[in-house]
């Protein structure tokens, strides 16, 4: 399915006639605040998420550089030098959540990954273009447990703080190879091949019947996989303000900060020691960026929601030189039983 088809499908969802009921967040969430829309405070919920990320811009430090400038860089103008022209990363994630009590929740997330990359290789004094064989496979399954450590009242809470502990399992393939037998770029693999602990905090404050404030923090510890490769720890913090525009529609704007440590490839399992390969050298990994995220959510009927979010980078910084994300589109469907 093409990106254009997704856009048409998205518009159809937003124009789906909604059943109108009493407005405001208080009525949309009658059993109290919900931290992430994955599940009601008690019960079962399912959710489908789709994300599309497009990468075509290069940064060196905090400065944007052109593809031509990168190709003229002496580091890559050597036989075997590789530079990515552009990349797309798609992810479908099916999540199921069970909340045995009003304060506890267990979430299982299963992703399906589709990665594509066009690249250029320098051979015999000239650049030639090629396309990486599409990588499509099961990703790393995540299991998370959450506990509400604070709420302002037992019935119909308006303010809550939830802590989470989870693990990203090595269920996705981490040794996918090209037709020539060489391993695909580590960060284009569908899985990491490692068991990675995850810590999270989620805060929500129902400011009024029309305004909802959400904030979250997440830290993921990147352990070595069976080849000794480590993808680098990641950390993120964000805040989002939602406004109940109509009885069945919310609009939002969020700001997110993301940090990733540089990867480590001590055994050169993914060509991580080769500085002429911009796709693989671990020195060209790690990043800091700030995103703005406008969004819209439609509530067609009680228990169901459809949401769309667009992420655009306001600030990018990388340790050396990297291909960075131009934008990201996310679509989600959820239903609570």
Notable traits:
337 residues; mainly beta; Porin; disordered N terminus; single chain; 6% helix; elongated
Write the layout of secondary structure elements.
Layout: H1 3-14, H2 25-28, E1 43-60, E2 63-65, H3 67-71, E3 81-99, E4 104-123, E5 126-131, E6 135-138, E7 142-151, E8 159-168, E9 196-206, E10 211-220, E11 234-246, E12 249-260, E13 287-298, E14 304-317, E15 321-336
Antiparallel strand pairs: 1-2, 1-3, 1-15, 3-4, 4-5, 4-6, 4-7, 7-8, 8-9, 9-10, 10-11, 11-12, 12-13, 13-14, 14-15
Structural commentary:
This protein has 337 residues and is mainly β. It has a single domain, classed as monomeric porin ompg (Porin), CATH 2.40.160.40. Helices cover 6% and strands 53% of the residues. It contains 3 helices and 15 strands. The chain has a 12-stranded antiparallel barrel. The radius of gyration is 21 Å and the shape is elongated. The two termini are 30 Å apart. Residues 3-22 have low confidence and may be disordered.
């Amino acid at each position: 399915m093409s990106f254009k088809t997704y856009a048409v499908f998205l518009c159809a969802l937003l124009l789906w006639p909604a059943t109108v009921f009493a407005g405001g967040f208080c009525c949309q969430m009658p059993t109290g605040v919900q931290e992430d829309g994955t599940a009601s405070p008690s019960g079962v919920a399912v959710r489908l998420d789709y994300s599309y990320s497009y990468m075509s811009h290069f940064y060196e430090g905090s400065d944007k550089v052109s593809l031509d400038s990168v190709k003229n860089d002496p580091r890559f103008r050597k036989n075997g030098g590789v530079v990515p022209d552009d990349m797309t990363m798609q992810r479908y994630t099916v999540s199921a959540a069970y909340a045995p009590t009003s304060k506890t929740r267990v979430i299982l997330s299963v992703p399906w990954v589709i990665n594509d990359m066009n690249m250029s290789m320098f051979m015999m004094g000239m650049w030639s273009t090629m396309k990486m064989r599409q990588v499509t496979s099961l990703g790393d399954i995540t299991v998370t447990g959450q506990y509400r450590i604070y709420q302002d009242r037992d019935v119909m809470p308006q303010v809550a703080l939830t802590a989470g502990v989870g693990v990203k399992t090595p269920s996705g393939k981490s040794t996918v190879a090209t037709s020539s037998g060489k391993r695909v770029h580590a960060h284009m693999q569908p899985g990491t091949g490692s068991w990675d602990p995850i810590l999270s905090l989620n805060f929500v404050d129902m400011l009024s019947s029309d305004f909802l404030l959400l904030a979250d923090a997440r830290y993921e510890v990147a352990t070595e996989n069976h080849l000794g490769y480590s993808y680098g720890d990641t950390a993120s913090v964000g805040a989002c303000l939602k406004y109940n525009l109509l009885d069945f529609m919310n609009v939002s704007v969020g700001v997110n900060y993301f940090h990733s440590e540089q990867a480590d490839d001590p055994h050169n399992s993914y060509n991580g020691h080769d500085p002429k390969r911009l796709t693989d050298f671990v020195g060209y990994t790690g990043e800091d960026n700030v995103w703005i995220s406008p969004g819209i959510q439609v509530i067609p009927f009680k228990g169901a929601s459809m949401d769309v979010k667009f992420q655009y980078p306001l600030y990018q910084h990388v340790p050396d030189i990297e291909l960075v994300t131009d934008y990201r589109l996310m679509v989600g469907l959820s239903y609570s039983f």
